[in-house]
Specification:
Layout lengths: L6 E6 L8 H19 L2 E6 L22 H12 L2 E7 L7 H9 L8 E8 L5 H11 L5 E10 H4 E2 L2 E2 L3 H28 L4 E2 L6 E4 L5 H19 L5 H4 L2 H10 L1 E7 L2 E11 L2 E9 L8 H10 L7 E7 L3 H9 L3 E2 L7 E7 L18
Parallel strand pairs: 1-2, 1-3, 3-4, 4-5, 12-13
Antiparallel strand pairs: 6-7, 8-9, 9-10, 10-11, 11-12, 13-15, 14-15
Helix pairs in contact: 1-6, 7-9
């Protein structure tokens, strides 16, 4: 499971002047904010009327992601950034507000694989018929509606335009947030696989994407798992990857060309590289211990080499007693580089022209 901090968008959907929606949205935010802090969740509240969305006025289909108007691009960026939604909505004539339907129709892929919870309000049905109407639409967009809801009957819960303190309603609101966060975390791998910048990996269902500073917690865990064997093989604990603090790892991910292999939200393998003069330096090649022997290390090595560009030589370092690593690198054409490096072996291989390094194939090329 990812350690990234989820962002939940609380969307107040009514745009009618004098509507009750902002008061319900304010009550909701005040009620769930303490629980959001406990869960490590960021909340962002937004009133649909503040977006200034006219009736859908884009020429291209939303699935293309081609947006001509600034208001669409702003709305797209807002929805794309969110990991889940709570929609605060009234019921109009057995249905959801037309403004919400319009806002949903503006976008396509930005909604996919994100959970949505509903806080409804109304008279006879407390807005529940509007929720049922909305669920028919959101599932088509691959939004995932929650089972938990909050239904506010205006005559019982609202006085002088404000939602009154009610432990049952408050408990239901916290329940929506709890379920929303759990489902958002569970769906994160689906969102990542669908996102731009990911490519298929060597294992069925796996994907490769650049690592960013926000991935530092997962990288820390993988490093500490993987370099224990190196410490044993080289009879030393003086291995930076075992002790590197989180902030240093985060800084390294910002400055290196780092790549991660993921499956179902789990970081399986990683490698990083960067240019130094005419050399392309590769480091932190790691594969989860339970997945070794399946060619992933070789695949990740070739992925790092394929980004070398115009560099003349690829260089890497491993422990002097790390025979398994040295055997792998030598089988890929690396040879020891003369020069003493205490406790370590430096290896390199020449690149005679750009593109000489083989790009990784879609299946593991061999056992490593």
């Amino acid at each position: 499971m990812s350690m990234k901090k989820p962002l939940i968008l609380v969307l107040v959907c009514s745009t009618r002047p004098g509507a009750l929606g902002p008061a319900v949205g304010g009550w909701l935010a005040q009620t769930i904010t303490p629980r959001a802090r406990e869960l490590g969740v960021d909340l962002m509240s937004l009133t649909l009327g503040d977006l200034g969305l006219p009736f859908l006025d884009e020429e291209e289909h939303p699935s293309t992601g081609i947006y001509r108007h600034a208001h669409t691009r702003r709305w797209s960026a807002t929805v794309e950034a969110a990991d889940g939604f709570v929609m605060v909505m009234p019921e109009y004539n057995y249905g959801m507000p037309a403004t919400l339907k319009n806002a949903l129709d503006y976008l396509g892929p930005e909604w996919a694989w994100k959970p949505v919870g509903f806080v409804s309000y109304g008279h006879t049905s407390a807005g529940t018929r509007a929720v049922q109407h909305a669920k028919q639409v959101v599932t088509t967009l691959r939004l995932v509606p929650l089972g938990a809801t909050v239904a506010i009957r205006i005559a019982d819960a609202v006085q002088e335009g404000q939602v009154q303190q009610d432990d049952v309603l408050a408990g239901a609101a916290v329940g929506v947030l709890d379920e929303l966060v759990r489902v958002a975390q569970a769906l994160r791998p689906m969102r990542e696989r669908a996102a731009a910048g990911t490519t298929p990996g060597p294992l069925p269902g796996s994907y490769v994407r650049p690592l960013a500073p926000g991935d530092a917690p997962e990288v820390t865990v993988l490093q500490r798992c993987c370099w224990v064997d190196e410490a044993v093989a080289n009879d030393t604990l003086a291995i930076p990857a075992l002790h590197e603090p989180l902030e240093e790892i985060r800084a390294g991910l910002a400055s290196w060309h780092a790549t991660g292999l993921f499956l179902d939200g789990r970081l399986l393998a990683m490698v990083r590289a960067r240019r130094d003069g005419d050399e392309w330096h590769i480091g932190r090649l790691a594969v989860a211990p339970d997945l070794r022997g399946r060619g992933l290390g070789r695949w990740m090595l070739r992925a790092a080499e394929s980004a070398a560009g115009e560099c003349e030589r690829v260089v890497l370092t491993t422990g002097a007693a790390s025979r398994h690593n040295i055997t792998l690198y030598e089988s890929e054409g690396y040879r020891p580089i003369p020069g003493a490096v205490e406790g370590a072996t430096r290896l390199g291989k020449r690149i005679f022209a750009a593109g000489m390094c083989p790009a990784p194939t879609s299946t593991p090329p061999g056992r490593a």
